[in-house]
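Incident review: delayed structure delivery

Summary: a single-chain prediction request sat in the queue longer than the usual turnaround. Root cause was a stuck worker, restarted by the on-call engineer. No data loss occurred. The affected request and its eventual output are reproduced below so the record is complete for anyone auditing the incident later.

Affected input:
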Amino acid sequence: MIGDLLSVVCCLLSVVSFSVAKSRRQSNVDAQRLVRYTSPFLMRNTIDQIKHFFASAQRLLVCFGFTSVGVIHENGDAIAATLALSAALRQQKKDVVICADDFQAPPSLAFLDADVGPGGLAQILAALPESRATEINIDVAEQNVKTLSYDVHNGKLSIRVVPERGVILPENVSAKVAPYNFDGVCVLGAPDVQTLGRLYHDHTALFGAAPVLNIDCSPENDHFGHLNLIDVTASSIAEVVYTLIQTLAPETLDAKMATAILTGMIARTKSFKAPNINARTLTLAAELVAVGADRERIVRELYRSRRLSTLKLWGAALMHLVADTERKIISVILTRDDFVRADAKPDDLNDLIDEIATNSPEAKIVIICLENPERPPAVQIIVHAERPYDARLLLKPWNGVGTKINGRAELAGRNLNEAMETVLVHVRENMGR
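Output delivered after worker restart:
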């Protein structure tokens, strides 16, 4: 009798739960599912805390992990998601600064300049501006100030402070460089702070002084933010951002923003060919198209428009390709002459690693060693690693930056062949560790 009653109750609860779930707005359901609770503070009500984060911040730094030469599907997702989120914030009258360490605009994303504003890719800084205010503090607790004046003569600034009585002693005067006045920091697509490169290492105090919202879809994210919005079931960072916008400010979404978000989703999933695609991802993509996202143009720009210089450089790379089938390593050397003959730049290498990895699925590590014509005489090393290997750790002796999947470093004082051999020896020695 009791067992039958429990069965009936369980059935009723299932029906009620299903009905309630169906009746909720999908965006709210998605938002609750997005959050991965990382502290008792967050568990009180994470969505409310994120709302408060944006409501209380007027000036925001939005940054993302960027591999200057590497794969477009990761960079494209982070860039497009950042542009969409920043556009939504600006529509809410926020002052937004976008920055990524050593940022170089990928040519395949140039069309976003026309579609997402203001400024498109041109608004993304490669480093924070060096110009900041210098604060001069004078202790006048015991003396009222009678007059204050300044003068600039022979390149020197003189400040004259006259108290009502006595003098102001030198020990009562101090000066310091004012911190960046950001009320909050949004980090997209960075599994850890090291992925942000010099942006973090040169401005560590900034990330400690301002609250940090960490947005990602990677299971490898180490939850470094004060607030962490990590959805490991999402296809892309852009998908996480779309759900966030739909939850917090759906009225801001327009066709340009939708195009940016769909660009990120298509780039990350390689035009919806990735294994983590599910019905929800396709539903969201359809919603974006309904808003006005230009899917045909996105696909054309990302996959059907290759510059002749890019194709020539790819051809040179394939000619220089060496495969170590025993250790499952593919290595490629590109000289400065290869770039000159192809009339190419390092950003023409975008997608090359993807092409190599896709057409050589047995390869676990891809290494590209190149003479960067834009940064002579240093030799640049790019490493792509599949699990269980970590690209950034493999490049640790040379202060490599990037992610576990894609890393980069520069080697000084070596020619191309010496640099490649040095890296190969180190990689082979560390593959078994």
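Verification: The longest strand covers residues 145-153.
Action items: add queue-age alerting; document worker restart procedure.
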